[in-house]
Design goal:
Protein name: Epimerase
Helix content: 25-40%
CATH topology: Rossmann fold
Oligomer: single chain
Structural class: alpha/beta
Family: Belongs to the NAD(P)-dependent epimerase/dehydratase family. Dihydroflavonol-4-reductase subfamily.
Pfam families: Epimerase
InterPro entries: Epimerase_deHydtase, NAD(P)-bd_dom_sf, NAD(P)_dehydrat-like
Keywords: Oxidoreductase
Shape: globular
Length: 344
């Protein structure tokens, strides 16, 4: 019998691709959704990449569980060999109330770990974020690795970064008091782009969608470490299966790319279909003024204007043999997928 892997949050962008890749590699997959209404949508999205009959009828099943409640998690992990904990509770990324994001992220992670350790799951691979291994503020530049932890007490830290840092910290603190067979590994991705499975869950790909539609009438001076969602699914599985990965953190960032370079890649790679992509650079001062007076959602990016904070993935290369594809390829594939799904 093939091993069974629980993937939390199957309706999400990254989780959906992890489900696809696990099925391709012959695993049985159980994925959590928050309600029965999402099962069909997840199955249809996965079927675009995996044979529908095989995936839906034989090796893909669903469990109803919500990170904000205890109910359902014991049943979700029953008979499971591994857990990919990818789901993250929804929150307001620009809220001034950090607690509104921290509590759901931290408590949801602990619910999954308690259920997994009680069931004797062999390994939990948790999706964290590269910004949990970054200088606390953006004042410093350079290359960091997994040995660095973001300081969650930095008053300049936005709620999203604080919540991700505290959620991962809570996971490691929990495992430090646990004495049993279950192992923990964390994966710390950068900016996730690539093909979509469905228009209902596009995650961070919304940036490329706005660029292609012309809604983004200029590009800020922001640099992203772009990782392809397919490569991110791959490193989760490598982290799940490698004996050397137990108890380790792995950065899963890709090539550092300015948003202006993304815009040029879309225009050049998509030809006429990329004609609405703006290559006009928005001055930093204009972004800061807009964040202050017109669009609070921009507050999240203003500290990063012009910064080149980067992360080393040498550990993932050395221990897991992981190699991400070039950012340009990811961005163009992302654009093509959005167009093919009619999302633009």
């Amino acid at each position: 019998m093939p091993e069974t892997v629980l993937v939390t949050g199957g309706s999400g962008y990254v989780a959906g691709w992890c489900v696809v890749e696990l099925l391709r590699r012959g695993y049985r997959v159980r994925t959590t959704v928050r309600g029965h209404g999402k099962e069909r949508a997840v199955g249809e999205a996965v079927a675009t990449q995996v044979d529908a009959a095989d995936a839906a009828a034989e090796r893909l099943e669903f469990a109803i569980a919500d990170l904000t409640a205890d109910r359902g998690w014991d049943a979700a992990v029953e008979g499971v060999d591994h857990v990919l904990h990818i789901a993250s509770p929804l929150g307001n990324a620009v809220s001034d109330d950090s607690a509104a994001m921290i509590a759901p992220a931290r408590d949801g992670t602990l619910r999954v770990l308690r259920a997994a350790t009680a069931a004797g799951v062999r390994r939990v691979v948790m999706t964290s974020a590269a910004n949990t291994a970054s200088p606390s503020s953006y004042a410093e530049e350079g290359v960091t690795d997994e040995t660095l932890w973001t300081d969650p007490e930095d008053p300049a830290l936005i709620p999203y970064r604080r919540s991700k840092t505290l959620a991962e910290r809570a996971a490691w603190d929990f495992m430090a008091t646990y004495d049993g067979p279950t192992q923990l590994t964390t994966v710390l991705p950068g900016a996730v782009f690539g093909p979509i499975l469905a228009t209902s869950t596009i995650g961070s790909v919304g940036i490329v969608q706005r660029m292609l539609s012309g809604a983004l009438r200029g590009v800020p001076r922001i640099g992203l470490e772009i990782v392809d969602v397919r490569d991110l699914a791959d490193i989760h599985i490598r982290a799940m299966t490698s004996p050397q990965a137990a108890g380790e953190r792995f950065l899963a960032t890709g090539e550092f790319t300015w948003m202006l370079d993304m815009a040029h890649a879309l225009r050049e790679g998509l030809g006429e279909q990329g004609r609405q992509v703006s290559t006009r650079r928005i001055p930093d001062v204009a972004v800061r003024l807009a964040a202050r007076f017109r669009d609070p959602s921009l507050r999240e990016i203003t500290p990063a204007l012009g910064r080149r904070n980067r992360h080393s993935t040498a550990k993932a290369h050395r221990v897991l043999g992981w190699r991400p594809r070039p950012a340009r390829e990811t961005v163009i594939d992302c654009g093509r997928s959005l167009l093919a799904h009619g999302a633009v």
